[in-house]
Amino acid sequence: MNGETLSIIWAVLIVFFTVVEAFTLGLTSIWFAVGSLAALIASALGLGLAIQFIAFIVVAIVLLVYTRPVARKVFKVGQNKTNVDALIGKTGFVTKAILPKEVGQVKLNGQIWTAKGPEHESYDVDEEVEVMAIEGVKLIVKKFEETK
């Protein structure tokens, strides 16, 4: 292959990896786009196919290994911020009895949630409970004990 054809291939790969990144937002394929850019530069300098391929692989892997973890923290990729953590420690009232090893319902902040308690405890309707944790969309509750 001649140098012009290789440059076109690397340019197409840059566009391809950038488009894939835009659709996936996984901070993975963008590093391959940058690796393709390094190979395109090597191609423009007239370096051989082997050097271009090595430039692509080395740049992509180095960026993937060393910058991806930092980028994931900065951009918080894959982390959806929610306010459910603010519900831990809040109290609500049982609207559907919670039986041992079964789920019931709790009204908390005006919303009805599916809830369960420790394995061997049950909670009656209108009993006040405290949120200990949240598993998915299910509250994990315990009997509310007022502190004096």
From TrEMBL:
<dbReference type="Pfam" id="PF01957">
    <property type="entry name" value="NfeD"/>
</dbReference>
<feature type="domain" description="NfeD-like C-terminal">
    <location>
        <begin position="84"/>
        <end position="143"/>
    </location>
</feature>
<dbReference type="InterPro" id="IPR052165">
    <property type="entry name" value="Membrane_assoc_protease"/>
</dbReference>
<protein>
    <submittedName>
        <fullName>NfeD family protein</fullName>
    </submittedName>
</protein>
<keyword id="KW-0472">Membrane</keyword>
<keyword id="KW-0812">Transmembrane</keyword>
<dbReference type="InterPro" id="IPR012340">
    <property type="entry name" value="NA-bd_OB-fold"/>
</dbReference>
<feature type="transmembrane region" description="Helical">
    <location>
        <begin position="40"/>
        <end position="66"/>
    </location>
</feature>
<keyword id="KW-1133">Transmembrane helix</keyword>
<feature type="transmembrane region" description="Helical">
    <location>
        <begin position="7"/>
        <end position="34"/>
    </location>
</feature>
<dbReference type="InterPro" id="IPR002810">
    <property type="entry name" value="NfeD-like_C"/>
</dbReference>
